[in-house]
Amino acid sequence: MIVPFMPQATGKSGRPFNDHRLMTEGIIYRYRAGIPWRDLPEHFGPWQSVWKRHRRYSLDGTWDTVLAALLTRADAAGLIDWEVSVDSTVNRAHQHGTNMARTTGGPVE
Fold first, then answer.
1. How far apart are CA 66 and CA 108, in angstroms?
2. CB neighbours of 49 closer than 8 A, spacing ≥ 6?
3. Within a 10 A sphere around the Cβ of 66, how many other Cβ atoms?
4. How far apart are CA 31 and CA 51, in angstroms?
């Protein structure tokens, strides 16, 4: 489903890419588990490779393209509810948390 949006290694010098699926699963696993990159299980390959792939795709816009394609497909299938909920929470500042002069109502000298 996302394979057409992944960069191809054809025509580039250097090492060929590792499997896109394995790298993507490693990235997803890292975010779902909430672990540091160094704690990524070994079956995803070296953590440095997974991190580099994630960084490369973040910088070149690959993840943005994949997200747009997935959202388009899900919206066409009616799987996305576009309703928005707005929270009107108010946070009060401490009296000294402002930069305005405080008037006490007393006489001004």
1. 65
2. 18, 23
3. 17
4. 12
- Phi/psi at 77 (5° precision): -85, -5
By CB neighbour count within 10 A (0-12 exposed, 13-18 middle, 19+ buried), where does 86 fall? exposed
- This model's pTM is above 0.85: no
Question: What phi, psi does 59 have (nearest 5°)?
Answer: -75, -35
Chain-wide mean pLDDT for the chain? 84
Distance CA 71, CA 67 (A): 6
**3-class SS letters over the chain:** CCHHHCCCCCCCCCCCCCCHHHHHHHHHHHHHHCCCHHHCCHHHCCHHHHHHHHHHHHHHCHHHHHHHHHHHHHHHCCCCCCCCCCCCCCCCCCCCCCCCCCCCCCCCC
Query: Model confidence over 52-102: pLDDT tens digits?
Result: 999 999 999 999 999 999 999 999 999 998 888 888 787 777 766 666 666
* pLDDT reported for residue 52: 93
